[in-house]
Structure to design on (232 residues):
C-alpha cells in the first residue's frame, strides 16, 4: 500500500534526481504529486490501464430516448470516460445494446422510433455531462445497466496509502520516473526504460478485454428499418 511520497521518492531515485539516501524536498514532493495525478488521469482514458468495470443500473422513462449521465444528470453518477457495455433489462431478461458512433447516429432519419426495447446507443462523452442516445425509444418498466471503466484513484495527499492490484506499484514507480525525468533534465537509463516498458505491458495485458465476436458496426440494419432481434 504505497503513499504518494513513497512513489515520488522511488521515482526520483530511478530518474537519477535523488541519491540512495536522499529524500525529496517539499517542492519536489508537491510537484511530484501533481505529476503523479496527471499521469493517473491520462491513464484513465486508456482502458488497458483500468482494472475494474463498475456496472450501475438506472430506470428508463417510457418513450424518452436521451439521457444525460454524470453528477447531477438523469443518470446521477460519475461521468464515464469509457463505456464498456450497456444492456437494458425487462422482467429479468437482459438485452445488450450495440454502440454506434456519431456518424451512424446522425444518419438515423427518425430517432424517436418506438421500438419498446432499444437496439443501439450512442454516447457523445461531453463534459461535465455526457449524453446517451438510445435507438429506439424504450417502453415502460425497463431499466438500463451501464458498465463503465472505473477511474484510477488520484492521490489526495502525500501521506495517505492506497491499494492497487499486483503489478501497479512497479508501474507507478517507473511510470512516474519517466514522467518527471525531463523536468529535471535527466535521461532514463536503458535498463530503466526496459523495466518501464515491461511493467506497462504486464498491467495492460492483464487488463485487455476478452475477445468477443461482434456484429460489424457498419451492418446496422436495425437502424434503417429492421431490428437486430429479428423484428420489423
Amino acid at each position: 500500500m504505497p503513499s504518494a511520497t513513497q512513489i515520488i521518492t522511488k521515482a526520483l531515485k530511478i530518474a537519477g534526481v535523488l541519491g540512495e539516501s536522499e529524500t525529496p524536498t517539499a517542492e519536489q514532493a508537491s510537484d511530484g504529486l501533481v505529476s503523479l495525478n496527471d499521469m493517473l488521469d491520462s491513464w484513465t482514458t486508456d482502458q488497458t490501464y483500468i482494472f475494474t468495470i463498475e456496472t450501475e443500473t438506472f430506470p428508463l422513462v417510457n418513450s424518452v430516448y436521451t439521457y444525460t449521465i454524470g453528477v447531477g444528470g438523469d443518470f446521477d453518477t460519475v461521468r464515464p470516460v469509457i463505456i464498456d457495455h450497456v444492456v437494458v433489462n425487462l422482467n429479468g431478461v437482459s438485452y445488450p445494446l450495440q454502440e454506434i458512433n456519431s456518424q451512424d447516429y446522425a444518419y438515423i432519419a427518425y430517432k424517436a422510433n418506438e421500438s419498446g426495447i432499444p437496439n443501439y446507443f450512442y454516447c457523445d462523452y461531453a463534459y461535465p455531462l455526457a449524453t446517451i442516445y438510445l435507438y429506439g425509444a424504450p417502453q415502460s418498466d425497463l431499466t438500463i445497466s451501464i458498465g463503465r471503466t472505473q477511474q484510477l484513484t488520484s492521490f489526495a495527499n502525500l501521506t495517505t496509502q492506497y491499494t492497487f492490484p499486483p503489478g501497479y506499484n512497479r508501474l507507478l514507480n517507473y511510470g512516474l520516473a519517466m514522467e518527471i525525468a525531463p523536468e529535471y533534465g535527466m535521461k532514463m537509463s536503458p535498463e530503466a526504460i526496459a523495466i518501464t516498458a515491461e511493467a506497462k505491458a504486464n498491467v495492460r495485458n492483464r487488463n485487455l478485454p476478452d475477445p468477443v465476436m461482434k456484429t460489424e458496426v457498419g451492418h446496422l440494419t436495425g437502424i434503417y428499418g429492421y431490428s437486430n432481434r429479428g423484428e420489423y
